[in-house]
Amino acid sequence: MSEPVQQHVHIYSLSNGMPQPLTASALQSSHFDFSFERAIAELELLPRMFIELDGSLVWCGEVETRRWQIDGMIYDRAGHVLRVELKGAAPRQAWEQLLSIFGWPKQPLVAQYVNQPRFVELEDFLVATVARR
């Protein structure tokens, strides 16, 4: 059985390729290939998703009497989403569904752990969303 693990990450698009060196400031020149408004419109289609016009979001769910929640914030500039901050504990399937709205798996994405100075490929992040018992 697997249990959701609390995560806190920033998600960046690699639409311009992998910057060298890979730093948060280098990723600021990259952006998602869609607007804030499009992201909001697609997120609103998820059941139990609550979004404010400032980009803050809360998505709740339940699997077999276990509740989960992901909080987040969408950051944009010049008509494009720049990054997405996500924090919470949820099943891997929920993370995958949420990240698919931001283009994954077609669009390469990278996760930056907020409390640790490290970046990971998205697949490594998804593996870390659950602890095996």
Task: Provide tags for this entry.
133 residues, alpha+beta, seven-stranded antiparallel β-sheet
Write out the strand line-up for the largest beta sheet, numbering strands in chain order: 3-4-5-6-2-7-8
CATH architecture assignment: 2-Layer Sandwich
* CATH topology name: TATA-Binding Protein
Count of distinct structural domains: 1
Shape, principal axes of CA atoms: globular
The number of strands is: 9
Mean pLDDT: 89
Description:
The structure is a single chain. With 133 residues, this protein is an alpha+beta fold. The mean pLDDT is 89. The protein starts with a strand and ends with a strand. The chain has 4 helices and 9 strands. The chain has helices at 24-27, 36-43, 92-100, 122-128, and strands spanning 2-4, 7-13, 49-51, 56-63, 66-77, 80-89, 109-113, 118-121, 130-132. It has a single domain (2-132), classed as TATA-Binding Protein (2-Layer Sandwich), CATH 3.30.310. The protein is 21% helix and 41% strand. The strands form 2 sheets. The chain has a 7-stranded antiparallel sheet with strand order 3-4-5-6-2-7-8, covered by helices on one side. Strands 1-9 form a two-stranded antiparallel ribbon.
